[in-house]
Amino acid sequence: MRKSPKRIGLAIIGAGRVGLFRGEVAARHPQVDFIGVADLKPERAKLVGDKCKADFVTGDYRELLKRPEVTAAIISS
């Protein structure tokens, strides 16, 4: 019997070059159901959120980590 794949709710903390790269890769992954982006610079968080079609964008990582959808996090600060 095969296990069904786990669904992933990904929090990306830090929307610099690495955060953008990780977000774009995650957006193409079939198991990722949710992407959230947090960065202290609102314009950068929005840019990365738009590029990876994020479901949630914020300036406060704590707000992102409280989301019930989040099951994994990438810290790229």
Give a short overview.
The chain is α/β, with parallel strands linked by helices and 77 residues long. The chain has helices spanning 17-28, 42-51, 61-65; strands spanning 8-13, 32-38, 56-58, 72-75.
How would you portray this structure in words?
Helices cover about 35% and strands about 25% of the residues. With about 80 residues, it is of the alpha/beta class. The chain has a single domain, classed as 3-Layer(aba) Sandwich (Rossmann fold), CATH 3.40.50.720. Helix 2 (about 40-50) links the parallel strand 2 (about 30-40) and strand 3 (about 55-60). The model has no long low-confidence stretch (mean pLDDT about 95).
List its salient traits.
77 residues; alpha/beta; Rossmann fold; 4-stranded parallel sheet; globular
pLDDT averaged over residues: 94
For the biggest β-sheet, the strand order reads 3-2-1-4
Summing up helix and strand content along with how strands pair, one would put the structural category as alpha/beta
Q: What is the assigned CATH homologous superfamily? A: NAD(P)-binding Rossmann-like Domain
Helix-strand blueprint:
Blueprint: E1 8-13, H1 17-28, E2 32-38, H2 42-51, E3 56-58, H3 61-65, E4 72-75
Parallel strand pairs: 1-2, 1-4, 2-3
